[in-house]
Amino acid sequence: DADVTQTPRNRITKTGKRIMLECSQTKGHDRMYWYRQDPGLGLRLIYYSFDVKDINKGEISDGYSVSRQAQAKFSLSLESAIPNQTALYFCATGSDNTYEQYFGPGTRLTVT
Amino acid sequence: AQSVTQLDSHVSVSEGTPVLLRCNYSSSYSPSLFWYVQHPNKGLQLLLKYTSAATLVKGINGFEAEFKKSETSFHLTKPSAHMSDAAEYFCVVSDTGGGNKLTFGTGTQLKVEL
Fold this sequence. Notes:
The structure holds 2 protein chains of 2 kinds.
Chain A: E1 4-7, E2 10-13, E3 19-25, E4 31-38, E5 42-51, E6 54-57, E7 64-70, E8 73-78, E9 87-94, E10 101-103, E11 107-111
Parallel strand pairs in A: 2-11
Antiparallel strand pairs in A: 1-3, 3-8, 4-5, 4-9, 5-6, 7-8, 9-10, 9-11
Chain B: E1 2-6, E2 10-14, E3 19-21, E4 23-27, E5 31-38, E6 44-50, E7 56-58, E8 64-68, E9 73-78, E10 87-95, E11 103-104, E12 108-113
Parallel strand pairs in B: 2-12
Antiparallel strand pairs in B: 1-4, 3-9, 5-6, 5-10, 7-8, 8-9, 10-11, 10-12
């Protein structure tokens, strides 16, 4: 089984709708991250969490919110989706001891 | 502050020839550096990492990278390209004062031709 899972894998939604992307991990890591990937821009950090009670904004948090329901679960919400939020979204985990991160398979979100 | 510049957005090589993907970084602290690979419609996989040990780092699938502090570079190389190497490659920096946050380069698309 995959260490980091994301649901859904693909989603098409309409402008103005609220949508939640979910991430679960079995690696036992405290740190979890949400990124978005756009062609030619690499990955950009949306939010990150160092533990259940510690949530931090990344470089592009406007229009997004997150919830860390448990050590293993970290959800990303788009309060009112807009077309420029169409992107590939990745969840990642990281341990306290190393700097590498482990990525989920991604969620492709399309906002029409 | 930290940043990464991948000097080529696209690289094309013939199968069996060497691969060179170039990366320069900027970091306020002692950096950790990574190369990740993304195959089409797949997630990101760690190829290799530098975390202040040996400056020549060996990764999976025959890739390696050399950390050169004087040049602020961390170029990725492979002696002989294989068709399965065709993918997008990301150079990534995490500085030790940055709370484990990664900064990604914009990616290099590697094409391998017969």
